[in-house]
Amino acid sequence: MMAKLKFIRSKYFLEEGEVEQLAQVPSGGNPTVKKSKADDGVFGAPVKRYDGYDKVSGTARYTFDVQFPDMLHARTLRSPHPHAKILSIDTSRAEALPGVEAIIHHGNVPEIPWYGNSRLFDPHLRYVGDEIAVVAAVDERTADEALKLIDVEYEVLPFAVDAEKVLEKGAPVFHESGVLAYNPWIYERGSVLEGFKEAEVIVEETFRTQVAVHNPTEAHISVAKWDGDRLTVWDSTQGIYSVQERISEALRIPASSVQVFCPTMGGGFGSKLEGGKYTVMAALLAQRTGHPVRLGMDRKEMNLVVGNRPNSVQKLRVGAKRDGTLTAMELTAFGTNGAYPGWAGCNFPLIGTYKCPNVKTDMSSVYTNLGRSRPFRAPGRPQGTFAMDSILDDLAAKLEIDPLELRLKNYAEIDQYSNQPYTSKKLREAYLQGAKQFGWTEKWRPAGTDSGPVKRGVGLASQIWSGGGGPPAGVTVKLNVDGSADVIAGSQDLGTGTYTFLSQVVAEGLDIPVENIRVILGDTATGPKCPVSGGSLTAPSLSPAAWDAANQIREVLLDGAAAVWEVDKKRIAYSKGLFTVPEDDTKRATLPEMIDAIGMGTIVRTGYRAKNVEGYTAQSFGVQFAEVEVDTRTGKIRVLKILAAHDIGRTLNRRLLENQFHGGIIQGLSFALMEERIVDEESGRVLSTNLHDYKLPTIKDVPEIEVLIVENDNDTKVNSMSVKGIGEPPIIPTAGAIANAVFNATGVRVKELPMTPDRVLMALLSEV
Amino acid sequence: MDDSESTKKVSRRSFLKTAGGTALGSTLLASLPPAVKDSFAEETNDELSPGTVPLTFRVNGERKWLKVDPRDTLLHVLRNQIGLTGTKMTCNRGQCGACTVLLDGEAVYSCHMLALDAEGRDVTTVEGLLAGEALHPIQQAFVDHDGLQCGFCTSGQIMAAQGLLNRYPNPTRDQVLEGMSGNLCRCSAYPNILKSVLSMAK
């Protein structure tokens, strides 16, 4: 039954017995479902999605669905030029159109700083899509018609859209800082010069990744409504508090005057982390017209203006000893952050994933006349990991070492960046259990040895992500007189399960059924401040706060019971909604009875996420194994299977976890094979602005996916709940694993994403 | 409908003028229910609108007599005129399936057809599957198998699934894959969507 683990050709890392122990997969039934003590209670149980009913019945209210009888609809006039200055703007024809209520632009709105030195309406236009004016009208069609009647005179300026050419040949400067968004960030530990001297083998390669666009299904949208000097905003956002802050800053009004709602939202993936221009514009129009104003975007705007995963050009050089020990890794990389300040970094995987004493990364980002980059599910990681794990497999092939062995050989026991220990790290278990479950030993053969026109191959890639969460995060629990509880947090649920896990944690903490819990999210007026829903922060930040609040309420109840019954608190037992005093049958009260006896009415406490433990690095870890088929006649890649083996601490809800892992993996797959923003260099225009031209996977593109979570239920250093976030980890290694499987199948390295048939064929031909 | 007939001759601007300017005008508008306001606004916009035309069809079993702008899509009328916001819009050009509804039992993209083309026909939206507050079995299947994440595409997924089940009450895996391939899910809850729909096979 035990895997032979033949692939481990040297015995450098573990004794045979230890290997067996680590590689042990729980026997019986589905080995991916682990049994742990958490399964006895609500916590960790595969409870069904809290907001499932609302979403399947069509009754969930998204910002997109918010309607008021007197609501106006706003649309935005955007720059048709990649680089231009507005010489004049005349809105008189548009204003004359019946149904038009207000038009705002740089000429009639105060200067509101935005994107560093730019502003809300900037007459200097820096990309196709930059905001020129916004029209509010009785309906969307009228607003759209009005846009066509706005007369703008432009001074058209030279532009640049190709980041590589900007660096090579220079480009028109449209920011004070020049063509670079910031000074190159250079990181070095040890000495790569020395490291390469020590190396017995050196591999070098340049990799490229594309710009990918978030494209959440609910477009970015705000509805703004004033009542006197109080503003209410419904926003499809990943951070109600960041929206509140942005509006408060922009309009110079106190945060307490701004209430932001987002009870349900249709996806963000990082594109909805900040308060947007459109939100402030809606608020300005609502103020001017005295009507609620709805300002949303269409799919074209979604593909131009609300962010993207920046491209990358990564020049990598890796040196190693003959036995595979890494001696030096060097990365020089850049990407484009588009027309406004942003980040295009992709160097973190190289800095921290594997053990290496000498590492240098030189990371810069270039301005181009295109939409701004934004964080996109694990910013920088899928692209950095693709390049890093690709070159490691090139190295493994050169050294004739099994790729898994190479990873195990260079396993980082401590955090390479800070030299601190990890709160916990079970990546080795993930490698071994994952390899066994996947059948790595049986499936892996040296690269390019499959014969026939359709070749099969397997590959793997690793993942790290800082998923431990942190303060500030508050969760309020209100215990009602009937023994039910309301849980209130200033967070939001992106489809990630915030509602569900909060109900579970509080149900466990108060020992009441999960059905008796109501969760209220997405309201800045009632929910304590929580982090944005990004960075895999939510579960590891909010679950400890909710646990804290529930425990505080338990203490109030036990203190109260002690006073009511006049017995020592220590003698009182509480379980499943029942207070008793063992050995005293006269003392017995249900939760509602005890709440009544205590006489406080509802009992309300707010719990907080404690500070992170100093001296440790919190990270989630994982590895993914891919099996692919490459048709060498057509260049078409078919992914047959992805197995994900991850250390994410303790599982809060297996049902929702698996779903979120599927999502990350499929997005990683489409990043590897399909998605790409296409730009026409001549005109500076994005050509892929709809969901037909921007390729997304359908249900038919989904491979077999298996999710294996390694046991790690007691990492109390990461946080009181032992929870690491799972939003980003699943997307990080997928593209790298697929790329390595393609290399393994064909013996040819595709160095550029997405690996579309044309790129695969070109790579195959260039090897002939 | 008589009310909107009588206001048809009044242009919006002249109405606002007689009503004493924008502020008062908006107060009056605010007091009107959405459907009346919507048709009022459309009808009086002479420069743009070709006028409205009557439309009679059934929505979720109820007969509707409406006056619609002939340029409006079925999706627009369902959401903005009837107020059924369960049907979503993501691409508005027949590329994603978020707006899927049943037309005489068959799944169609409601953003991709004119409302007028539904004349005399039977439209079912996601709300129409409910029996009172109780979920329809296909809706329950999506809850049981967690066939969703953010939920924005879910109405369309469910209606596509019901359309598929109307055609093939006992679909094969391949039929489900084919039948559901016109509905994008950016969260990529696809494996659970597949499970949800397959669970309905007898």
* Quaternary structure state of the chains depicted: heterodimer
Radius of gyration of chain B (CA) equals: 20 Å
Q: In the CATH hierarchy, what is the superfamily of the largest domain in chain A?
A: Aldehyde oxidase/xanthine dehydrogenase, molybdopterin binding domain
- Using only C-alpha atoms, the radius of gyration of chain A works out to 28 Å
Point out poorly predicted stretches of chain B. Answer: 1-45
CATH topology of the largest domain in chain A: Aldehyde Oxidoreductase, domain 4
For the sheet with most strands of chain B, the description reads:
5 strands, mixed
What's the number of helices of chain B? Answer: 9
**Unreliable parts of chain A:** 1-40
Number of strands of chain A: 30
Q: pLDDT average of chain B, as an integer?
A: 83
Query: Biggest interface between protein chains, with counts per chain?
Result: A-B, 68 and 76 residues
Order of helices and strands of chain B: HHHHEEHEEEHHHH
Structural category of chain B is alpha+beta
The domain count of chain A comes to 3
| N- to C-terminal distance of chain A | 43 Å
Strand content of chain B: 5-15%
CATH top level of the largest domain in chain A? Alpha Beta
Q: What is the first-to-last residue Cα distance of chain B?
A: 47 Å
How many strand units of chain B? Answer: 5
CATH-derived architecture of the largest domain in chain A: 2-Layer Sandwich
Give an overview of the whole structure:
The complex is a heterodimer of chains A (768) and B (202). Chain A is of the alpha+beta class and 768 residues long. Chain A has three domains: 5-60 and 469-608, Aldehyde oxidase/xanthine dehydrogenase, molybdopterin binding domain (Aldehyde Oxidoreductase, domain 4, 2-Layer Sandwich), CATH 3.30.365; 64-157 and 220-296, Alpha-Beta Complex (Aldehyde Oxidoreductase, domain 3); 308-468 and 615-766, Aldehyde Oxidoreductase, domain 4. Chain A contains 20 helices and 30 strands. In chain A, helix 18 packs across helix 19 (734-746). Chain A is globular, with a radius of gyration of 28 Å. The relative contact order of chain A is 0.13. Chain B has 202 residues and is α+β, with helices and mostly antiparallel strands. Helices cover 40% and strands 12% of the residues of chain B. Chain B has nine helices and five strands. Chain B has helices at residues 2-7, 12-18, 22-30, 34-44, 74-81, 137-144, 154-167, 173-180, 190-198, and strands at residues 53-59, 62-68, 100-103, 106-109, 122-124. Chain B has a five-stranded mixed sheet with strand order 2-1-5-3-4, covered by helices on one side. In chain B, helix 6 (137-144) crosses helix 9 and helix 7 packs across helix 8. Chain B starts with a helix and ends with a helix. Mean pLDDT of chain B is 83; it is low at 1-45. At the A-B interface, helix 2, helix 4 and helix 18 of A face helix 3, helix 4, helix 6, helix 7 and helix 8 of B.
